[in-house]
Design goal:
With 248 residues, the chain is of the alpha/beta class. It has helices at residues 41-49, 52-62, 68-77, 83-90, 99-108, 121-129, 170-176, 193-196, 206-215, 225-237, and strands spanning 5-6, 26-30, 112-120, 138-145, 151-154, 182-187, 201-204, 219-221.
Length: 248
């Protein structure tokens, strides 16, 4: 039996902050695939290294037969690649050119930034490392490798009661954040739906725009993180009546 090992390196991460303090009063939660990255990383890897079963699993997920956690668990298990081959594909994936500037802005305003993704921790870290941004706290599914050509996923942030049956329950992450005046969310897709109504403001792209409109959730439509950087200063000026409570 093959032994699988995690390959992401968490030693460089800044200590994640879950409680507001005198310096940090605001949090921005950011999705990764299609939000920070220019394209969906997991889909890119599966297209390159997955087999025919991956497409069938995707269809079952889209039809609601299985949840995203089970879909990704099986898809990654059907992926065959060496780590060097995986790294070669990840090296071609770019991030939103405005994201680095946004992080600079966030640091200047003492904004607490977490990356919350239903994607792959190692892939996210590998991509951010090229931009010297791998210090950002990443909360994602844990990619494991057997040092040959097989892969599997571990789900350290799963929740058996997750509305979307996601590998990473973003609502659960939101519930851990306490005492902040405001919590903002930046996202684009279905994994962001359940958390969208549990934050103070959503910055939305693509499918998340339609969802916010349908559910009458307050949002700003954005094209990239340049829009977030432009809009946030005004939102930070607006005083909150009370510090943001933890949703029930």
């Amino acid at each position: 039996m093959s032994c699988f090992f995690p390959i992401a390196d968490y030693r460089k991460y800044h200590q994640p902050l879950f409680y507001a303090n005198n310096l940090n009063q605001y949090t921005v939660l950011c999705d990764f695939d299609g939000t920070i990255s220019e394209k969906d990383v997991t889909d890119t890897l599966l297209n390159q290294f997955g087999n025919a079963k991956c497409a069938l699993l995707e269809q079952q997920w889209q039809e609601g037969i299985i949840g995203s956690q089970e879909c990704m668990r099986q898809q990654i298990a059907n992926m065959q690649a060496s780590q060097a081959e995986l790294d070669g594909v990840l090296a071609q994936i770019r991030i939103d050119p405005a994201f680095s500037e946004f992080i600079g802005f966030a640091q200047s305003r003492n904004l607490n930034v977490h990356i919350v993704s239903d994607g792959l921790d190692y892939a996210i870290q590998s991509i951010l490392k090229r931009y010297n941004l791998d210090f950002l706290p990443i909360f994602a599914n844990r990619l494991l490798h057997n040092q040959q050509r097989s892969w599997k996923l571990d789900f350290p942030y799963a929740n058996d009661h997750c509305f979307k049956a996601s590998g990473n329950c973003k609502c659960q992450h939101r519930r851990k954040l306490t005492g902040f005046q405001k919590i903002f969310y930046v996202g684009d897709g279905t994994s962001d739906f359940c958390v969208a109504d549990k934050v103070d403001m959503v910055f939305a792209k693509d499918k998340l725009i339609d969802f916010c409109q349908q559910q009458q959730i307050a949002y700003y439509p954005i094209k990239n993180f340049g829009d977030v950087t432009d809009i946030l200063p005004e939102l930070l000026k607006t005083p909150a009546e009370n510090s943001c409570p933890t949703p029930v």
